[in-house]
Amino acid sequence: MKQRFFAMITMISLLLTISDGITAPASAENANAASSAVSSEDKGVLGRQDSGLPAAAAARQAPEALANFITRKGDALMDGENEFRFISYNVPALTARVFNGKSSVTEYEQEDAIRTIAQMGGQALRVYVFSVKGGTANRNNASHVNTPGDYSEYLFQDFDRMLRLCNKYGIRVIVPFIDNYPHHGGINEFAAFQGKTLTAFYTNPQIKQDFKALISYVLNRTNTYTGVKYKDDKAILAWELGNELAYSPDDWMSEMAAYIKSEDPNHLVMDGQYKNDGKIKAVSLNDPNIDICTLHYVDNIFDLRKQSKGKKPFVLGEFFVGKSEILPLLDDIVNSGTTGALIWSLRSHRDTGGYYFVNDFEDRSDSFQWPGFDSTLPEGEPYIMKTMREYAYKIRGLDVPPMPVPNAPYLLPIASSDAIRWKGSVGGYTYAVERAKRKTGPWSVIASDVFDSTKPYKPFNDTSAKPGQQYYYRVIAKNVDGAESSPSNVAGVVAGITAPTSASAAGTNWYEPYVSDVLSKGIMSGYEDGTFRPQGQLTRAEFAAAMAKYLNLGLPMEGAAFSDTQNHWAKNYIAALTARRIIAGNGDGNFCPDDAITREQIAVILVRAVKTNAVPNGFIFVDDSNISDWAKSAVYTVRIAGWMGGDESGFRPKDTATRGEIAAVLSRLSSYRF
Description:
By secondary structure, the protein is α/β, with parallel strands linked by helices. It has helices spanning 2-13, 107-119, 153-169, 187-192, 205-220, 250-263, 282-286, 301-308, 323-336, 381-394, 512-520, 540-551, 571-579, 599-610, 632-641, 659-673; strands at residues 70-73, 76-79, 82-83, 86-90, 124-126, 145-147, 150-151, 172-176, 236-240, 268-270, 293-296, 314-319, 340-344, 410-411, 422-423, 430-436, 444-450, 470-478, 491-494. The two termini are 28 Å apart. The model is unreliable at 1-63 and 498-508 (pLDDT under 50).
């Protein structure tokens, strides 16, 4: 109740008029700025890109969409009294995106993928493994497992959020613990923590104990979004021993399956095997603690079902086939009584427009983008995905429903008429772009069949816009049947004028639309050479100026609030914020305007600026002890509200913030205020 109440207060507070009357201690900013810049390769609001909406706006408790744990009855899975069968997708980047050199996935991207599974009738999905530091993609970057007993809170929070969304949309999840391969870090990297190679993973007592410790941590983790332990979460269909553990000994499989069951009697255990010459292992069929048998990339479906019939459910954990092969394979899956099948793999929309794409299988692509496009690989993608949807319902004994009307897309901030982008809608096939000279219309369609599936992604270019004219835009999504969504939000731009965000300054980084937004609104400005320098540090004076512009404060004629700001270019901005008790000096009459501002200082200023009530305690970061006492309540507040986040290292309160990160904060704040 307290969290929901705070969420309401936070959103209401954003709408209140800024006024004098709340005083924070002057010592709240008496910290020396750190000298190192914040790394921000794919981290949104001051450290990470959590969502297009503030976290406070999302329910902290997931709605109860799932009534039962999935259980096993002989060779079938059961959802209460009903048999549970599924045809769906692997979604390997749902909890981490290391294939693309990144370590985090946003809430929008997670929800896009999960809503896709729900829309195509999938009922279940399979995520990828928990990453282990030292893999070929994640290398020395933060991973789910940094060392034995050291787990990334930052990445596990993404996993928490994924489970909340799966509960919301009624989707079950298969979770493999560890990889046979080094992509995300696997058994070899895990064994290396003890100075061993992969052959010791299955036999070394200490390594086995380390692995059990990981299992225990996962099963007993309390979800920071829902308050539910993983072992009590109905969204989890099964724990899988690992991904394609082709050489796992029988005794190791039995030992780990028994350990999982001892810690978590609610959930099923899957064996985690690979091709194995098309043979299900005897231990998988006979061990009472192993509930589900799985193989990957095999096609003898009727033979496999014959092997498992009367003993265990069989799931085709991964497969990839072309247009001519999909229909006969799905027929075999349905008609053989196979419990489930998961194609490799679904990729979501990108938070900054377009889709993610991944090529594999000798460049035939293993990357499916819903609802499928003729212009992208694999060949015949629309037919494959349409057939997958039909059989997702057929295996459940249901008629295929019409494609639902898409939700409204979200138009991202626009700085130039030649770079209009939006967050796509689930099931959106094409988009209509509308333009008006006033924010309220009237609206004219300037393009009716725009795709967001180009590879690489290309923002929409309004070639008919006239230089110097002020235009407003909105976007409407259409599904494959032509049904249209409601219009998106409205964004405006002066056509033909590109804000100073050169490719060298912003490029395709996550912060590009936010930089464009603050530039177009005049909250921040670029440099005379036409660049924005998003990786550059922001000084206390520059942040004061940006905050004053964001708050639209009337500036005093004379603004020398501190002895060291008498002749400073930002003296009026500093004075305006000081008069409203939003900023303070260091206690000796100085403001130190040219010092780099720190993340905890920013948190305090944000809380004062919106006049929201700071929470006394809340989200605990791994570096909580490094947060100054005067800043802790503000840090908790901005984290819960979604204005600032953390990363694998925690909140990093003494780190400085970059110009790109500040642009993201102010852009998102301004979106809710205006």
